[in-house]
Amino acid sequence: MSKPNLAPGSNNVIELFSGRPLQGTRKKILRIAPEFDSLEMLYTNDSSPRKLYSLKIVCWALRDDGEVVGMVPWLNEIVACTELNDPLNGRWEGYRDPGIDDIFYVAPAHKIMELETSAEYYEFQTDTPDDIIQEIPDIIGTHAVLTDNGFKSFSLIEVFSWRLQADGTLHSMLVDDEIVSSTPVLPGDECLYSSMDHPDFKYFFQHRIANKIKEQDPDALAAISLLIEP
User: Fold this and answer.
1) Residue 187 sits in which domain range?
2) Is residue 19 part of a domain?
3) Is 137 within 8 Å of 187 (Cβ atoms)?
4) How far is CA 81 from its chain centroid?
5) Could you give the number of structural domains in the chain?
């Protein structure tokens, strides 16, 4: 699959329920730090309001208001855990350390310190909003779903990395296998492109769901069938 030719600033990501492009002002991300200790976001949804669900955190982000928040792939974007407020699919309930079964509500002190000190050390002067500030690997098995025919067929592609641009946007990067010139693929390679700028990008799936789809699990395939557009 080749890289799409998109105009700078184009917005091809559509909000799942409204059908409108994602827009509006957001707090700018200044710096990110990968989550290596399997910390999770906890959330509830309306289908089982008394049950807690968990989702692995990709990274922690320092924003321009000084707050540090966990970030997770959710539906068709990457969002701050604390701002998850989707009446159909989830509401944030806190963070969790599964190793000690501890629940907490603010970013860990060591992540706050890491981000604040690194932001102070790296004071980037950039000329364009799409300059690359950081790129970190995806280590939680995130997959992007691409389809151009309303889910009658689709591609399920592993997210290789997350790229922070100077304008504060965080992009999920995929590998274009047709233009790989050397291996292993490394962050910053020319064969990487942003799934979130791709016109066929629809959703993020976590690795458990993605693997069930790859294994042709009947329940997972039945769920996918509900997404097929008439």
Assistant:
1) 129-230
2) no
3) yes
4) 11
5) 2
Q: Which amino acid is at 97?
A: D
Q: Among 46, 81, 89, which Cα is nearest to 60's?
A: 81
Q: Could you say which of 89, 123, 157 is where a domain stops?
A: 123
d(CA 76, CA 17): 11
In this structure, what token pair is assigned to residue 221? 């395939």
Read off φ and ψ for residue 175, nearest 5 degrees.
-95, 125
Q: Which two tokens stand for residue 137?
A: 């690997």
Per-residue tens of pLDDT for the chain, all 230 residues: 443 333 333 344 443 333 434 444 578 999 999 999 999 999 998 878 789 999 999 999 999 999 999 999 998 999 999 999 887 778 999 999 999 999 999 999 999 999 999 999 998 778 799 899 999 999 999 999 999 988 888 889 999 999 999 999 999 999 999 999 999 999 999 999 999 889 999 999 988 888 888 888 888 777 777 777 76
Distances (CA, A) of 23 to 14, 15, 20, 117: 10, 9, 9, 31
pTM: 0.83
From the list 102, 105, 63, the residue with the least C-alpha distance to 81 is: 105
CB 65 within 8 A of CB 126: no
